[in-house]
Design goal:
There is one protein chain. With 1319 residues, the protein is of the alpha+beta class. Helices cover 37% and strands 13% of the residues. The strands form twelve sheets. Strands 22, 26, 30, 31, 32, 33, 34 and 35 form an eight-stranded mixed beta sheet that branches. Strands 1-5-6-7-4-3-2 form a seven-stranded antiparallel beta sheet, with helices on both faces.
């Protein structure tokens, strides 16, 4: 078995391994003792390969105090976010940096160790590490190290999320320099050469000892680092200098930082007032070399050290590293006091990332962390736990191991034993069928060992993650595939042979008769095989259906891979040519439908109609348009796919806000107090939303219809609703828009209608009597199956028109209209300008009314209008009754004359025009206003988990959709003001031209000039916390100051499937801010160049300036070449000057183009390496049309299926070509992205679940029972309709709904625990 362990290590284990980690001498087999976890096999006879390389150093890490932060040993770690421990090895002189960074964790929670997480548990991050690469061993020209080995780890505790980085660097003094300083022979040769150069001057001087040379160099460095003393130059002729170092050590002196001045050497110039920890490279280099010189001196013989009185005691760095890693006083086992230090630690401890002196509780903690971070290798970690329990003879650990094994976990020893029981080698490759065959033969040979063999097979199935093997092992038969496997059949096995295999099965094993009958039942239901059903009831096989090959042959189809549409086309042709074969041909299609598991063919056989090509249980439902509600439908589809939000809505009763006065007194949403009325309205909204979601889950149809009440509550905020109510008491009578199911019409409309004179005013109502019925509603009641199939109108619909039925021949017209709704006539203005005699013909149920193909207004004749507006006309106040005729058409009939005259004079009474006002508000609603209204109501409806410092409610909705951003404003005195606030979306625009998503986002976070107190100050914004669901609003509606009118910008926004938000984050890292500032400077320069390019490249003549100058020069030149009588004298200097100007302008334009390209390249690549915070594109709201009209639809990505779907009102289809989304179509009104949704990449599977379907099974109609086809993926036993939503429940019984999810933390997502859910 090829196993790669990916677990972590506790802090004590990591420090233990840090002593043995030597990147300079790695082991030959590639094992990394610091980052890798050893794999130990108890059955292997040969010893494991060494964990460290030959000759590697067992480090003794000593502290470099001047490079550590914090410096006070008694400073509590809780007060800092970043810790740095710098050390050097007192043996090999290697350098070490340990950086512990808490800045990306959740400061709301206590750091590790704590009650929940007893120690830090660090998991290696290979993608963030840079191991040592083989290469040069010499320092670079910049005086840095020859190489740096960087290993990065993360604490696996979600709230902690500490980042640990370990950097190991080689000694600064390379072997050649060490030889010059400590090799007696090299020192002797150098000193004798100096003496020979001037014997008289060096008379009485001898060859220095190595310790003298080392101390002399150390003295020079100490003098250079002395910030108070005067740094002395070294005389080149100084006798001590020449004897100890001299010219042969020039390269070493230059590396250290000495510089020449004639024959003399000037000492290094480190930063004189450097604070601790050192950050200046010169100070760090001198400090490192000083520590290495101490190591070299300490290795000199004791005799030398006694003579020259050397004494230096290094301070161990281990205490400081233990302190910052929280492992100073962890709980130890009592047996650790008697551990034999000469005996090697068992590898099982390293396997769990623990060490031998751990208490049993810490061993358990380490095991739990390993299986949490590396569940695939649970068998090995369980074996480590079992081995340690046995070695310690610990009852607690044995109990823990027994509980784990009882919970369906298996160990390595279990796996080896399982393979061995079947006579197989665990590490050899085997096919599933081979293993199953061996298992069956073993059972046949030894039936008494069946239970033992089944357990072994189950373990093998779990290990291989083979569903096929596990089904055979457990004998569980719950679906079609398992039924076939139980009987040993294949999908193409005929019914006749299935019955034969059933007989053989129960003859061999009579005890399996019940399971075998259940398997036959599943197969019969899946295939809809009456023959197999008859076999179960009578024991004899009924009429056997034709096989699939015969079916294709009967239809004369030779290619079995053809599309369903071609099969249906062939069927229609064959039945037309051979009507007598209708039954046989239909049976052939039935057989092919079963073989293909094609719902499209199956529905055609059942109903004679072509339906959706997708399986209902595996495909989202559409939402019918109930009157220009395409945007609302897109929004509802988006919210449905966000699994935490959907779970919250479906389980909202658990979170509902109490409406008593005491509970509401402190409720604040959107920085304001919320009233009881708003909470009640919001809960009504959530209840309506839950009903819709329930219908979307359980509907047995391809689309459902939202309720009008939900549309009103979604599109109209509570404040707008109150405004409407007040306006309705003040407004005169206005035309009604009609109703759907008793609800007024909502949604975006066309531009407001122009005023009309009273003589053509359309009647609002037929009377003021409470019993009046709108005739439009009467027409809708004729067929209310899909309210979006009705054209919404103003005024009265005339009763003498039948409904228009559109048949299949108009399918292409339907599709074109459906894709381009906004091209159809506006609903008001154009109709009002048309003939008064023009009447609307309402559309029936068979019409593709969701395309709103008729957006007209039925207008009464002038005579009727005159009657309706005449106050003396009694008919105006006559109640209108609605009757149903035998042919089901609804008609209007006027009642008799009133029994008493109307009051005189008539008192004006307020007329409720809320439907009109709401519709107009719907038309004016901004996308973000609607979304803000939805989020506001969701928050109002539920209880708070907690509140922030301002009293603002914090809850699941806030956590999902709201982030925080911080603005920085610098005044003219250099002072910076900051302001942090919530944000639910990022607003970007494409007004100035097409751009990519990063350029658009830059516009929201780049520095800009803002007016403050009459002055202008620079301001920029950063994101301090990112929400998991990131919403981006593309502001396309612009205002033309010249025409004083609004318009929609159709400039292309180039989307990316993945964006990285690192560049926009609020960070203490000065490098990130410097990068952003550099980018801003480039953009400022780019703007200046682009403005200059416009000056040079654009003109009213259609030519750029160089071309104009060149044409002018040519024209003047032609003037000089005319005949003598017509020639015009042109000064030669003028022609030459214009030619020079043209050349210079062209050169400038080319230079500008080059600079612009370079700047654009620099800007686009400035942040390419920042890829730690990826967000994936999940939804794209699309709009086609003008700023005040058009059509919306939405694309939503299914991460599980790796496919895009298009949700266009009642239709949901697969996107075959993604360029439909990412490439802008040609034309003056292209479909453009209006609103984008990105989700945090690491949580996409928890956040997004587009397909949540559990359709109810409908009873077949009597007309279709003889050819009924079942839902092939749905067992027939599911007879009861699903009437309630049940979130997925894992095997352990925990409800995996929104409030119980375990959400990992990450950049920009502040995790917290409240109200029973952990984020």
């Amino acid at each position: 078995m090829n196993i790669h362990l990916r677990g972590g290590k506790t802090a004590p284990r990591l420090l233990h391994d840090l002593h043995s980690y030597d990147p300079q001498k790695p082991p030959p087999h590639g094992f990394n003792v610091l980052t890798d976890i050893p794999l130990h096999d108890e059955e292997q006879k040969k010893p494991p390969p060494p964990a460290v390389g030959k000759g590697s150093c067992r480090h003794e890490w000593s502290l470099k105090h001047n490079q550590c932060s914090p410096t006070l040993e008694d400073e509590p770690p809780e007060q800092n976010l970043l810790f740095i421990i710098a050390a050097y090895c007192a043996q090999c002189r290697s350098h070490l940096e340990v950086l512990l960074d808490f800045r990306e964790g959740d400061n709301f929670y206590p750091r590790c160790p704590n009650e929940d997480s007893l120690l830090h548990h660090f998991v290696h991050q290979p993608e963030a590490s840079s191991p040592r690469q083989s290469g040069t061993t010499f320092p670079g020209l910049d005086h840095e190290f020859a190489w740096v080995d960087t290993q990065t780890f993360r604490c696996s505790s979600t709230p902690c999320y500490a980042k640990l980085q370990i950097r190991i660097k080689p000694p600064r003094l390379i072997p050649d320099w060490v030889s010059q300083l400590s090799d007696p022979f090299v020192i002797k040769m150098r000193a004798e050469k100096a003496i020979a150069s001037d014997p008289e001057r060096f008379e009485g001087h001898g060859v220095p000892m190595p310790i003298q040379v080392l101390q002399r160099m150390n003295a020079y460095i100490s003098d250079a680092m002395n910030v108070h003393g005067i740094k002395k130059r070294i005389q080149g002729k100084n006798k001590r200098f020449m004897l100890n170092l001299g010219e042969p050590c020039a390269d070493l002196l230059e590396y250290i930082g000495f510089s020449r001045e004639g024959e003399d050497w000037l000492p290094p110039q480190p930063e004189p007032s450097a604070s601790i920890p050192f950050t200046n490279p010169d100070n760090i280099r001198l400090d490192d070399i000083e520590k290495e010189l101490h190591v070299l001196i300490s290795k000199r013989p004791d005799e030398e050290k006694r003579i020259f009185k050397y004494l230096h005691i290094p301070i161990s760095a281990m205490d400081d590293m233990k302190r910052i890693l929280g492992s100073s006083d962890y709980r130890k086992s009592l047996r650790s006091r008697t551990i034999d230090l000469t005996k090697q630690e068992h590898p099982f401890y390293a396997g769990l990332g623990s060490i031998e002196d751990f208490h049993d509780d810490l061993i358990t903690f380490a095991y739990d962390r390993q299986i949490l971070t590396d569940p695939d290798n649970t068998p090995y970690y369980l074996e480590c736990l079992q081995g340690i329990a046995a070695g310690r003879n610990s009852e607690d650990l044995r109990t823990k191991a027994a509980i784990e094994a009882a919970g369906d976990k298996i160990s390595f020893s279990d796996i080896r034993a399982a393979f061995k029981s079947l006579g197989l080698a665990a590490d050899a490759p085997h096919e599933d069928d081979t293993i199953i065959g061996i298992f069956k033969s073993r059972i046949a040979d030894a039936p008494k060992q069946e239970s033992e063999l089944r357990r072994a097979l189950k373990i093998i199935g779990q290990t291989r993650e083979s569903q096929k093997i596990q089904v055979v092992a457990s004998q569980v038969v719950t679906n079609y595939e398992q039924a076939l496997s139980f009987l040993g059949a294949e999908p193409n096995t005929s019914d006749e042979f299935i019955s034969t295999m059933f007989t053989i099965k129960i003859n061999d094993r009579p005890a399996d008769q019940h399971t075998a009958r259940h398997a036959i039942s599943l197969i019969a239901n899946h295939r809809n095989s009456q023959a197999l059903r008859n076999f179960l009831e009578t024991g004899t096989l009924g009429e056997v259906e034709m096989d699939v090959d015969t079916a294709y042959a009967l239809l004369d189809i030779h290619d079995k891979a053809v599309e369903d549409d071609l099969i249906l086309t062939t069927y229609n042709v064959r039945t037309s040519d051979n009507p007598s074969q209708l039954d046989s041909l239909k049976n052939a299609v039935t057989v092919i439908a079963k073989a293909r598991n094609s719902r499209r063919l199956g529905d055609f056989v059942n109903t004679g109609m072509i339906s959706s090509e997708y399986e209902l249980s595996e495909w989202p439902v559409g939402l019918e348009n109930i009157g220009n509600t395409c945007y609302l439908n897109s929004l509802l589809q988006f919210y449905f796919t966000i699994k935490p939000l959907r779970d919250l809505v479906m389980n909202v009763d658990e979170f509902k806000m109490p409406v008593d006065e005491e509970s509401l007194i402190s409720k604040r949403v959107g920085s304001r107090t919320v009233s009881k009325k708003e909470v009640t309205r919001a809960q009504q909204f959530v209840d309506e939303l839950r009903r819709l979601f329930q219908s979307m889950i359980t509907s047995s149809k391809a689309s459902v219809t939202p309720e009008g009440q939900l549309a009103r509550l979604t599109l109209v905020s509570s404040s707008k609703e109150e405004h409407i109510r007040r306006q309705s008491m003040l407004s005169p009578a206005r035309p009604s828009l009609g109703e759907i199911h008793g609800e007024p019409v909502y949604g975006p409309l066309g531009p407001p209608a122009q005023a009309v004179h009273n003589d053509s005013e359309m009647a609002d109502d037929v009377g003021a009597n409470s019993t009046e019925v709108n005739t439009v509603q009467g027409a809708y009641d004729h067929d209310v199956d899909s309210s979006s199939d009705v054209t919404l109108v103003d005024g009265l619909a005339l009763p003498d028109h039948d409904f228009m039925i559109l048949d299949k021949k108009e399918k292409s017209l339907q599709q074109r209209a459906f894709e381009d709704k906004e091209n159809l006539p506006p609903s008001k203005s154009s109709i009002r300008e048309s003939s008064p005699e023009m009447h609307l013909v309402p559309l029936g149920d068979s019409s593709p009314s969701r395309v709103n193909e008729q957006q007209g207004v039925s207008v009464a004749s002038k005579e009727d209008v005159k009657k309706s507006t005449d106050p003396t006309n009694d008919e105006q106040h006559s109640p209108t009754t609605v009757t149903e005729t035998p042919n089901t058409q609804m008609t209007s009939a006027a009642a008799g004359p009133p029994t008493r005259p109307p009051p005189y004079p008539p008192r004006p009474k307020p007329i409720d025009t809320s439907a009109v006002l709401e519709a107009e508000i719907g038309a004016q609603q901004d996308v973000t206003e609607v979304i803000a209204n939805v989020l506001f109501q969701l928050q109002c409806a539920i209880k708070a988990d907690s509140v922030d410092d301002s009293g603002e409610q914090l809850d699941q909705v806030k956590d999902l959709f709201f982030g925080k951003q911080k603005s920085y404003t610098r005044n003219n005195k250099g002072a910076i003001r900051t302001k942090e606030e919530y944000m639910s979306d990022i607003k970007v625009d494409v007004a100035s031209g097409s751009r990519d998503i990063y350029a658009a986002l830059d516009g929201a976070y780049d520095v800009q000039e803002v007016e403050v107190g009459g002055g202008v100050e620079p301001q920029y914004t950063s994101i301090s916390r990112l929400p998991p669901v990131l919403q981006i609003h593309v502001q396309r509606v612009q205002f033309n100051l010249t025409t004083r009118s609004s318009f929609k910008s159709n400039n292309h926004l180039q989307l990316k499937e993945t964006i990285y938000m690192d560049r926009y984050m609020d960070s203490d890292d000065p490098e990130l801010l410097e990068r952003r500032q550099q980018c801003w400077r480039w953009k400022k320069q780019l703007l200046r160049l682009e403005n200059r390019r416009v000056q040079l490249a654009k003109s009213d003549l259609g030519m750029d300036i160089p071309e104009i100058l060149k044409a002018t020069q040519a024209y003047l030149q032609n003037l000089t070449e005319l005949d003598d009588e017509d020639s015009i004298e042109v000064p030669p200097t003028l022609i030459q000057g214009i030619e020079d100007a043209a050349r210079e302008a062209k050169a400038e334009l080319e230079s500008i183009e080059s600079q612009i390209n370079d700047l654009n390249s620099s800007i686009s690549s400035q942040f390419n390496d920042l890829r730690k915070i990826p967000y994936r594109l999940q939804s794209v709201f699309i709009h086609r049309g003008y700023h005040n009209s058009g059509h919306y639809w939405i694309y939503i990505y299914d991460f599980a299926k790796e496919m895009w779907r298009k949700y266009n009102d009642g239709y949901v289809t697969e996107v075959k070509e993604v360029k439909e989304i990412f490439v802008q179509e040609a034309g003056d009104r292209p479909a453009t992205p209006y609103f984008l949704v990105y989700v945090k990449d690491e949580f996409r599977e928890q956040l997004v679940d587009p397909v949540c379907r559990d359709p109810a099974v409908e009873e077949p109609s009597k007309e279709t029972q003889d050819v009924e086809m079942q839902d092939y993926n749905q067992p027939a036993e599911l007879e009861a309709q699903v009437t309630s939503y049940t979130p997925y429940v894992p095997e352990n019984g925990a409800n995996e709904s929104y409030q119980h999810q375990e959400w990992p933390s990450g950049e920009g997502w502040n995790n917290r625990t409240a109200a029973g859910h952990s984020w």
